[in-house]
Amino acid sequence: MAALRGYALPLLLGLLGGAVLLLAWPSPEADARPAQAVPATGFDGGVRWHNSLPLTLKQLRGQVVLVEFWTYTCSNCLNVAPYVHQWHARYAPQGLKVIGVHTPEFAHEGLPGNVRKAIARLDITWPVVQDNQYRIWNAWGNRFWAALYLLDRQGRVVYRHDGEGDYARTESEIQRLLASP
Length: 181
Prior knowledge:
Layout: H1 2-24, E1 32-39, E2 48-50, H2 57-60, E3 64-70, H3 75-91, E4 96-102, H4 112-121, E5 128-130, H5 135-140, E6 147-151, E7 156-162, H6 167-179
Parallel strand pairs: 3-4, 4-5
Antiparallel strand pairs: 1-7, 2-5, 3-6, 6-7
């Protein structure tokens, strides 16, 4: 009986923990949502730009912009990458500008040489800013790798998606924004 009690408490706590997790689990709609058309905050605080000179939102005004927060060892980011590549290839000629914000999760991910190698290995040709001190991350209120933000031609965040999935909806939002004046 004493041995049974030794198993019962951990089992009960595990079941309660699982129930709490299920209650707190976000709905499928929670990770993709239209934003309330708030002005984007920009890229101040980045330590280094790759594939471009530093860019500002003022320079990007008039373009539809996809901002992707990522880091090169994140499996979610690596799973999102082929879609970002497709959107860049398909929609850049129509005016889509992709900007990567590389925010490292681990110290080695912040080394410029490692980021350059990852950009080359992943065949990233769009501008990428390194955000080693999380200044851009925090200014945007970001919390996830990967996170996608779509900006309209006025520089306002009008759509956001956290994590993987819902690629058709994100692409539909890109198309909608590109069709808008």
